[in-house]
Amino acid sequence: MKSMLDYKFILSFFLICCSGLLFSQTEKENEIENVVIKGVKKYKNKKENPAYAIMQEVWKKKKSNGLLLHKDYQYKTYEKIDFRLDNIDSAFTKKKAFRGMDSIIFKYNDSSEIAGKAVLPIFITESIFNVYGKNNPKKERKDLVATRLSGLKNNQIVSKTIQNMYQDINIYDNTINYLNIGFVSPVSRDGFGIFDYNITDTIEVNTVKSYEIRFTPKNQDALALKGRLYISMDKYNVMKVEMETNKKININFVKNIATDLEFDNPDDSTFIPVRNETTLQLVLNDKEKAKYVLAKRVANYSDYQFDKGLTDDFLNKIVVPEDEMVAKDEEYWQANRTEALTTSQQNIYKMYDELEHNPKYKKIVKIVEIGNSGYIPIGKSGIDFGNIFQSFGYNDIEGTRLRGGFRTYRGKNDMWRIQGYTAYGFRDQKWKFGGEAKYMFNKTNRFQVGAGFRKDVLQLGVQLTTDEGIMTRSFASSSVLNSGETTSMSSVKQTSLYTSIEPWKNIQLRLDATQQSIESADSNLFNINYYRGGVLRTDLNDTRFTATIIARPGIKFSTYGVDRYEMTALANNPTLILKYTKGVGGVFNSDFNYNKLQFYYYQPVILGNWGRLFANVEAGKNFDALPLALQNVMPANQSYGLVRGVFSLMNYYEFVADSYAVLFLEHHFNGKILSQIPLIKKLKLREVAFFRSGVGSLRQESINMNAGNINLSTPEKPYYEYGFGIENIGWGNFRIMRIDFNWRGNYLNHKTTNTDVRKFGVQFGFQMNF
């Protein structure tokens, strides 16, 4: 259910970067006595460090201050994000790439803000939100009130990518999430294992006397932060934080991350955030004099109100803003902006007002949009050609496969969509095709209906909890490089109807009705023969109804149309699916009555500076005996490509189960280990470890029903495989290669087809990540 990476986010980021590069001491005065301020010092024992006594008091209050003191809260957020190209010179302004736009772009060069360096404004967006929340249980609602952006106005993927690179930071959390990389917070209880703390001064922050505590990483090669904490001397609350990454960070495309946080105390007990400024220094190479993009986000929090009696019904209400409601004029922004625009930021609006009508700029924007969506607009017809990323594939049945398609597209919030495709295999010399239409009646509860049909050759059995969509196609059906034969393909004719609704935020209820006929694509190489009522059958008719509940708490989306782009780049949100399928025999010549229940759970977790874990758990049961074509097939991967949520050393249809449970664990250490090894650490490689296991059962009736050329087998003793990978292979700051080494743990002599068991395998691929 999850792709290998949130590639659209990284691709958007990459395109943005590319387009940018082209264009006095005192004594303590409270109960901790006689603390003397000293210079930077390392202590043998943390209890000898006077900062330790202060931080202990901070830890005591971390769960009982700020917003947590109140039953409910509400406040206003003003957010401003701008991108600027830094370190440009006169030679850069004369590059061919700018011809036709230079008279507009470079008259807005600004050298006033960053000591003598020329800065080119690239992008700016402003937004105002009203935030409402309660603490027990934790619920929050964030309503967009106004938004404004320059350039790329029609490309929501790009603009939302920029906004999705940042998030509000709770300094009291143990882990701070930057670009899905976990950094230990300087306020974490684990901090004294990561940082050296030194009290360096006492100052006033927002009229509050505070300790200034400097923190630096114990290991200068580790992925860690450095900076200063300002702790109030009477209440032990964090008043201010200045922190940034150390110089040797191993983050692709990023040279530095810096964050300043400010807090205020409107009363004696409540300390609330008032400002968050985060700056990313983005580069495509790590040379010292390389040009880079400065991406800064400023968020101001104001108009706090507490304990107003917010109800669950109010907080659960889904508000979908219409474009015209959040588009405000300059007079509104002058009145509601809580931080004035700099000259450079004002120039961005001026520049893009002029660029909007420039032919060359329009072409650049179109290229960026095509790279994100995969679709090419056909004039002003409202029809796009694509998806170009699905144009080519290969398997042993079809040989080389070419595919072309289209979709209707009139705007980012379209309420309806029609899309289709056709494909041709040069070996089987057959045309395949499919199409789907869907319409959404209401943006608030997303009530929609759809219908589709396809006739295609597919590799079934590579996904347990399947996607019911017509336009989807499995990786195994269109991979290019394979480690074994791809002959177990099926010819499928499928008609599908569906309706879905989201009565609660991020809770989807869906009902599908599907009629399909399945037969072997080449019965000489693979067949699904089975006995029904003593009669040998070579094809199967199936009519089924599927009810699905999909819960994705915390997921955010960039648009609200019938198709919407999911913003998951900084998310650790789970996905839960509960699915019940009822096969109805006799309807449209359907061959079987059956019942199936399935459960799916996916969870990414950031484990501090130890990296990020991806966990999948699936379980299911067929309550009736069924032939191979309708069975639960343990998902395999016979390609050399990287695919999460499948078994890399299992052959297609090697294991089949009436009842099953599978577990997939994949942990990315972000260089935690390799960065400690001399010489190796200079390569900036990162390590990955994974473990996969599955167990199942198969009733004898299902085995007796089978008459194909595959001996049905199930992993009654848990099958498992394991291995490690090396990622971040590349050069400079462009590192997108990954290689995995897989070992099979058991069933080493297991064989159900003519394909040999693979005890070891290597897989590789490209992954765009930070």
Question: What is the approximate shape?
Answer: globular
The structure class reads mainly beta
Tell how many strands the DSSP assignment holds.
Answer: 36
C-alpha termini separation: 22 Å
Q: How many structurally independent domains?
A: 2
CATH superfamily of the largest domain: membrane protein fhac: a member of the omp85/tpsb transporter family
Q: Report the portion of residues in β strands.
A: 35-45%
> How much is the average pLDDT?
84
Fraction of residues in H or I helices? 10-25%
Q: Uncertain regions: pLDDT < 50 for 5+ in a row?
A: 1-13, 18-39, 112-116
Architecture (CATH level 2) name of the largest domain: Beta Barrel
Look up the CATH topology of the largest domain.
Answer: Porin
Total number of helical segments?
13
Radius of gyration, CA atoms, in whole angstroms:
29 Å
CATH class of the largest domain: Mainly Beta
Sheet with most strands? 18 strands, antiparallel
Signal peptide: 1-24
Organism: Epilithonimonas arachidiradicis
Protein name: Membrane protein
Pfam families: DUF5686
Question: Could you please describe the fold and organization of this structure?
Answer:
The chain is mainly beta and 770 residues long. The chain has two domains: 45-359, no CATH class; 389-766, Porin. It is built from 13 helices and 36 strands. It has an 18-stranded antiparallel sheet that branches. A ten-stranded antiparallel sheet has the order 3-2-1-12-11-10-9-8-7-6, with helices on both faces. Strands 4-5 form a two-stranded antiparallel sheet. It is globular, with a radius of gyration of 29 Å. The model is unreliable at 1-13, 18-39 and 112-116 (pLDDT under 50). Keywords: Signal. This is Membrane protein.
